[in-house]
Amino acid sequence: MNQKTQWDLVNQYLLNPQGLTLENIESALGGIYTRSMDFADFYFQYELSESWSLEESLVKSGSFSLDQGVGVRVIQGEKTGFAYADSLDLVSLNRAAHAARGIVKAGESQKFKIQNQNNFKNQNYYLAQNPLGSISSE
Question: Does residue 118 sit in helix, strand or coil?
């Protein structure tokens, strides 16, 4: 896979659906380094899976799953802070970065999960479409 294709996939699945840009990510990283941290990185996760179970050429069951989020690691000397958000929007990314930086500043190695505040607004991020119904029984 060439470099352009990899960036196209990153933009298609991770950044564009939530309005994120590379500049947003660089800004969040820059916010971590303003507190004299030694190292920081983000880990983005996007997993889409679909499975079918066949018995004697008939579909007996199927499943679909989507799992996404962003993890943040911040290191200063011997101290490490981890935080995770299960949403890929800018607010969650910045909250996770702030939490990981705060853990390091507090001098303790801890982990926190950032709750997605957007869930309370009842926003739909994905189409209400079941992929299992996209193929006819024939």
Answer: helix
